[in-house]
Write a structure and sequence with these properties.
- This protein is mainly beta and 386 residues long.
- It folds into 2 domains: 2-142, no CATH class; 150-376, Jelly Rolls (Sandwich), CATH 2.60.120.590.
- The protein is built from 6 helices and 25 strands.
- It has an 8-stranded antiparallel beta sheet with strand order 1-8-7-6-5-4-3-2. Strands 9-21-16-25-14-11-10 form a 7-stranded antiparallel beta sheet. A 4-stranded antiparallel beta sheet has the order 15-22-17-20.
- The longest helix has 16 residues, at 127-142.
- Residues 1-5 have low confidence and may be disordered.
């Protein structure tokens, strides 16, 4: 696919059952899309929910965008030409935004690439054919059951005025907690001792040979149930931005993690499963000094944090709980855990009513060993692995 002001460049796979998959070529943009396709005589259409971004982008979209492509099949060996539409949210009709060329091989697209895109959208598909294809796509979409969004699923667990912080108590059972702790300690050589904590990384390997991204490593089979559960809750999307990275952090009493932002290495959503000791996890106003692409070796976090500020919101993390934050909380608020052996409940703690045990403001509790599983989507920066 070429054209449409460079919006998409890659490969579309259509199978006989009506499913469609788009994979970017990884040169200018990185990402993928999933959807459906239909055919009527010598005309066809595809609808794709596309999640992609520029290979070096710092600003990452938080959700996919829906597109429709309509084309007619010609008799010659050259590319088939069609129209490209963006589908706005709500009841607004699809809007023509450009044209595209599609062919069986890249070589067949070279003439279209050299010709370049036309200035401004001009329809290539006849209006009658367009309306029939659009109606067929609408009918296919209407047959699917309505999808409950991640925001709707998580709304009962929202706990803070800071946008998009959610707390789910007892997300796993005690026997599952014991199992995950045993897995984390199964090979003690996997732990990397830092000044502030111990850590393991699953799902990311060495830098790719192209020099633009990290090699993705498959998650251990023991982590797949976690990924499946997060995909079912629509916290991550199993096709477009799956949970593919797990960082295990181990904290002894008196250890913590300095306030920091994760930055554009990851999709802007985090799910943290807590095991062992409770602790207080805080969100701080972003100072504007963060440089998330640099590592601070003294404090073992992305660089540029600022000290001495009061938390804007705090969350008391009980064992077996799941903390999910995204959007504003991810982009504009640093997060961290104080390096103390005893926590005190303050008025900033915003989830007291959601806790399994009753805590009072001013109450203190001792920490013991805590292990957390921080689950994210590591963003590809190249298309070397598809």
């Amino acid at each position: 696919v070429l054209g449409c002001e460079g919006a998409l460049s890659g490969y579309v796979y259509l199978d006989p059952s009506g499913r469609a998959v788009y994979i970017s070529d990884g040169v200018q943009v990185v990402g993928r899309g999933v959807g459906r396709w239909v055919q009527q005589g010598r005309a066809a259409a595809v609808e794709l929910d596309v999640f992609q971004y520029a290979a070096a982008a710092a600003d990452i979209p938080e959700r996919p965008h829906r597109f429709r492509g309509l084309w007619t099949v010609n008799d010659g060996p050259g590319p088939h030409r069609g129209d490209w539409y963006v589908c706005p949210e709500g009841d607004e009709a699809p809007r023509l935004v450009g044209s595209f060329d599609i062919a069986h091989t890249t070589m067949q697209l070279l003439p279209a690439a050299l010709e370049g895109t036309r200035a401004g959208p001009a329809p290539r598909v006849a209006s009658g054919t367009r309306d029939a294809l659009m109606a067929t796509l609408d009918a296919a979409a209407a047959e699917e059951p309505p999808k409950v969004s991640s925001a709707d699923r998580l709304e009962p667990y929202r706990i803070s005025d800071v946008d998009s912080i959610h707390y789910i108590p007892n997300w796993i059972k005690p026997e599952q907690e014991a199992e995950f702790l045993a897995i984390a300690d199964g090979d003690m050589r996997q732990w990397e001792d830092m000044r502030t904590r111990s850590s393991q990384e699953w799902g990311a390997g060495d830098r790719c040979s192209c020099g633009r991204g990290l090699m993705r490593m498959p998650l251990p089979s023991s982590q797949q149930p976690l990924a499946d559960a997060l995909h079912q809750l629509d916290i991550f999307d199993g096709a477009l931005y799956p949970m593919n990275s797990v960082r295990i952090n181990g904290y002894k009493p008196g250890q913590g993690i300095y306030p920091h932002c994760d930055g554009p290495v990851y999709y802007p959503k985090v799910a943290i499963l807590s095991l062992g000791s409770p602790c207080i996890f805080s969100f701080y106003p972003r100072s504007g000094t963060e440089d998330c692409m640099k590592w601070d070796p003294e404090h073992d976090v992305p660089g540029g944090h600022t000290f001495g500020q009061e938390p804007q919101a705090s969350v008391l993390l009980e064992p077996r709980s799941l903390l999910v934050f995204s959007h504003d909380a991810f982009w504009h608020h640093r997060h961290g855990i104080n390096a103390v052996s005893k926590d005190q409940v303050t008025q900033k703690v915003c989830n007291l009513e959601a806790l399994e045990r009753h805590y009072e403001v001013g109450e203190t509790f001792d920490r013991s060993r805590r292990v957390s599983l921080t689950m994210r989507h590591l963003l590809p920066r190249c298309a070397c692995q598809g």
